[in-house]
Amino acid sequence: MDINFELYKVFYYVATCxxxxxxxxxxxxxQSAVSQSIKTLEKKLNVSLFFRHxxxxxLTQEGKLLLQHIEPAFHLxxxxxxxxxxxxxxxxxxxxxxxxxxxxxxxxxxxxxLFHEQYPQIQIHITNRTSPQGLQLLxxxxxxxxxxxxxxxxxxxxxxxxxxxxxxDVFIVGKPFFSLIHRExxxxxxxxxxxxxxxxxxxxxxxxxFDTLCEKEGIQISPDIELGSIDLLVELCKIGLGISLVPKxxxxxxxxxxxxxxPIKEHISKRQxxxxxxxxxxxxxxxxxxxxxxxx
Length: 296
Prior knowledge:
Elements: H1 5-17, H2 20-27, H3 31-45, E1 50-52, E2 57-59, H4 61-88, E3 93-99, H5 101-118, E4 122-128, H6 131-139, E5 145-150, E6 159-167, E7 169-174, E8 197-200, H7 205-217, E9 225-227, H8 230-238, E10 243-247, E11 259-262, E12 271-278, H9 285-295
Parallel strand pairs: 3-4, 3-5, 8-9, 8-10
Antiparallel strand pairs: 1-2, 5-12, 6-12, 7-10, 7-11
Helix pairs in contact: 1-2, 1-3, 1-4, 2-3
């Protein structure tokens, strides 16, 4: 059976007003249109829904039974409309964010705190994934925005990306390699080929940046250890297991007594963090405010 929701809307108003004229006024339609809608619905259902009198009408048993189902459904729709309006006014709702643990810890924490202070009724859902995986979640509709490293080869034409913060990658060494820092001339990338290396796994934007840098400079560095955590990379460098490349911001919690930046001859270009979202999906008011906060 085809469901004409407009007919049930008319039925609800007549059933609650018990008056065709009053129902017509609330619906902003003519009384004859109300009468015709009720007749059409009764014909579709093959029952009489009202006892008709001169001025008032009464529900039949069938009409009372139908109202038991229509009334909660009608209120549910109204509740949905109200919740939507509250969401648009930032009184409730949620934002779904995809970001790596590194980005969350070293770049987004103060923004999470500020957003929660400004909009405490909006829930923040964070899915912790690498930048490539975050873009995949975005394509699948599982997150509203992904905060990613740029450049990123996994971006597609379906996505908009807004850069919002620069980051500088640096080579780091632990105490056993501090002698490399105090050389008369800065060490070159070519020289680094002879030393043990620790890097993130291949399915990360930072690893892609490192591999692209090596290819550009014509050097070959095969990491001895591959990990999924920046913090663990720094810890292993600290105890002298090798050299690594990490965003400079990730060193703020580590003492220079145990870990230091290794100056190199070549220039390392800065990268950026970007806010990625789908072109064809409207952003909620809360998500728009989150993006604006990041860009401010």
